[in-house]
Design goal:
166 residues; three-stranded parallel beta sheet; two-stranded antiparallel sheet; elongated
């Protein structure tokens, strides 16, 4: 049953590209309904019920179920209590508050196949480690996704938001 405050999201290659800012916006919604077409999409008359049209990229699948599952996963992980650590758990991730790609991750063991964890991360100086991570994020973003830096390096509130259907 659709509630008056429901946002109805249609998964379609014709929609605006889904971004992290959209996941954050949808995470604030009281009620989300996802519509998934199959093969040729949905009856055009149903579009009148839709508030948002979302695409996962410039490609076509046989149905909207897989894109909906991906969108839902990115939204749900932003809800309070889903991830340990609260909002801090997602603050420094790729496309987070600085809009860049996340710095490389390292785990145990300290050496794997003759590759060591960078000394700055094992040294105990949190300020130096944070500075290293920031430099790594800038370098990685400039090499792999320069478009993110060209856009100002950060996502201002509303940047990348999906345009609501009029």
């Amino acid at each position: 049953v659709r509630t008056p405050e429901a946002q109805v999201v249609l998964m379609t290659p014709k929609g605006k590209t889904f971004r992290q800012a959209d996941a954050a916006r949808f995470a604030e919604a009281k009620h989300l309904i996802f519509l998934c077409g199959h093969y040729e999409g949905i009856d055009e008359r149903v579009r009148r019920l839709v508030t948002d049209e979302v695409s996962m990229g410039d490609f076509v699948l046989t149905g909207g179920e897989i894109p909906a599952a991906a969108a839902i996963d990115s939204i749900v992980r932003l809800l309070p209590g889903v991830l340990g650590g609260g909002a801090e758990a997602t603050r420094l991730e790729s496309f987070g508050e600085d809009g860049m790609l996340e710095a490389p991750q390292y785990t145990r063991p300290p050496e794997f196949r003759a590759m060591a964890v960078p000394a700055v991360l094992a040294g105990g100086d949190h300020a130096k480690a944070a500075a290293w991570r920031k430099r790594q994020a800038v370098d990685l973003t400039s090499r792999r996704r320069p478009d993110l830096l060209e856009a100002g390096g950060t996502f201002a509130a509303g940047d990348g938001d999906l345009a609501k259907k009029e």
